[in-house]
Specification:
- There is one protein chain.
- This protein has 5 helices and 11 strands; from the N terminus they run βββαββαβαββαββαβ.
- By secondary structure, it is α+β, with helices and mostly antiparallel strands.
- The chain folds into 2 domains: about 130 residues, Ribosomal Protein S5, domain 2; about 60 residues, Alpha-Beta Plaits (2-Layer Sandwich).
- The strands form 3 sheets. The chain has a 5-stranded antiparallel beta sheet with strand order 2-3-6-4-5, sandwiched between helices. It has a 4-stranded antiparallel beta sheet with strand order 9-10-8-11. A two-stranded antiparallel ribbon has the order 1-7.
- A hairpin with a 5-residue loop joins β4 and β5.
- It is elongated, with a radius of gyration of 21 Å.
Length: about 210
């Protein structure tokens, strides 16, 4: 399971996709690792891989999302129960990662590998994919909506940039609306600085 460090201020994930391949007795296991944050992203990536590999016999996967450890899914996609999805998830969890999807595409080589062989193959393929991607530590964010007059734009952006708050959405007109993420470990400072501007309305997003 993903481990959240320093009083839930940080989590570990990956920032870019990676790919690796493992072969055993003629079967090819091609593992794809992706950073994901929503189930819809997962669905799109899986659909794209199925389109890219229409002749593969299995498209097994595992993902873990979020920070509470409860949002995950595994699929053996026709392989014997417990031989694919769980070993893949085990590699995500052994590195204490979250917001990660791994799909392993299998081309059958004509020789049955048996349950131990399948577990080893899917586990190894997932391990190899994660080995080519550096893990990163990211701050846990709380999302806020900001509303303010355009004349305050420079002051607001100065605070946002100073505290590395990502901007998720923006509508810049005479009256501006921003959706930003605020690192939990800097929350008090950011809110104090924004409230100090006085003309900025803030609401926490659920």
């Amino acid at each position: 399971m993903a481990e959240i460090d320093n009083d839930s201020f940080y989590y570990n994930t990956i920032e870019k996709a990676g790919q690796a391949e493992f072969r055993d007795r003629g079967s090819r296991f091609i593992a794809y690792a992706y950073p994901v944050s929503t189930v819809n992203e997962f669905k799109e990536l899986l659909a794209a891989l199925k389109k890219e590999h229409p002749k593969a016999v299995h498209h097994c996967f595992a993902y873990r999302l979020g920070l509470d450890g409860n949002n995950f899914r595994v699929s053996d996609d026709g392989e014997p129960s417990g031989t694919a999805g769980k070993p893949i998830l085990g590699q995500i969890d052994s590195r204490k990662l979250t917001n990660v999807l791994i799909v392993v595409v299998r081309y059958f080589g004509g020789t049955l590998l048996g349950v131990p062989g399948l577990i080893n193959a899917y586990k190894t393929a997932a391990t190899l994919a994660l080995q080519v991607i550096p893990a990163v530590t990211k701050p846990v964010l709380d999302n806020y909506r900001l509303h303010f007059d355009y004349t305050q734009m420079n002051d607001v952006m100065r605070v946002i940039k100073h505290f590395d708050c990502p901007v998720h959405k923006q509508d810049i007109q005479l009256f501006c609306h921003l959706e930003i993420g605020i690192p939990k470990n800097r929350m008090d400072e950011v809110l104090f600085r924004l409230k100090d501007l006085r003309v900025v309305e803030m609401e926490k997003m659920i």
